[in-house]
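User: Structure with zinc ion, tokens only please.
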Amino acid sequence: MQRPLPDQFVPGDKMQKRTIAKGISLRGIGLHTGEEVQIRIMPEPSGRGISFYRVDYPEKVWIPGNLKEVKSTSYATTIGSNGTRISTVEHLMSALYGLGVDSALVEVKGPEIPIMDGSALEFGEAIQEAGLRSIGKERRYLKILKELTVEDGQSSITVRPFEGFRVHYTIEFQHPLINRQELELDIDEESFLRLISPARTFGFLNEVYSLRKAGLAKGGSLENAVVLDHKRVLNPEGLRFSDEFVRHKILDFVGDISLLSLPVKGFFMVKRSGHTLNHRFLKELIAKRDHWEVCG
Ligand code: ZN
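Assistant:
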């Protein structure tokens, strides 16, 4: 899965806030409902960040894609306002952030973002094909000034000051194909698209049974997740990378970081985390006003 950025990718001026150069339409299955969902990603030139519209209601409901609107982090990230929810936003948010899109409006005809192939590749390729354009406003960053660690049992996240966006991620699963996987990466448009966006979400067969029993993951299949039984991958095509699992965890982490609504300068060391600890960490970071600054 080594895909170079095509010649036509227009990244725009990185010193300025960027939106997509033209609209994108995508459709796919919702992971939890199993129903087809349609989305449209539109340019947003006023620079108010990534936000979502539920357009299947008579009155459109606008939901900003930021930390304040997160309503649930079990299995997927759900955002909402005034009782309206949009679920499974994390892979799309990750692709927008990873490819440097500061502002865009996502119209959703349904309760969740389609799962596509379980990765962010189709979102990333669509954004890449659309290209980016500057919106004439200075790009601001959230810059880490002091180290911070948040822990929960054997899981932890530490961030240190760093002039870039670097993630070191470690996962540990008692499974012969996973065990311990570690990856450190400087994340930019190219590394995100090639090394992170193709990594699919994964689950274990026994979990799939209990999710189905609970009426969840109705749209889940080998078409949109890597599924493991106790010793092997059930997908006939196998893995896209031998460490696809840790790469997907980085994809999810980037999606959660994007809820800060600003590109971040910092080095994140993440161990055995998931959406719930990621969100707790982000809330603690934002509350510690002397640990960061917003700068150009
Ligand atoms: Zn995920």
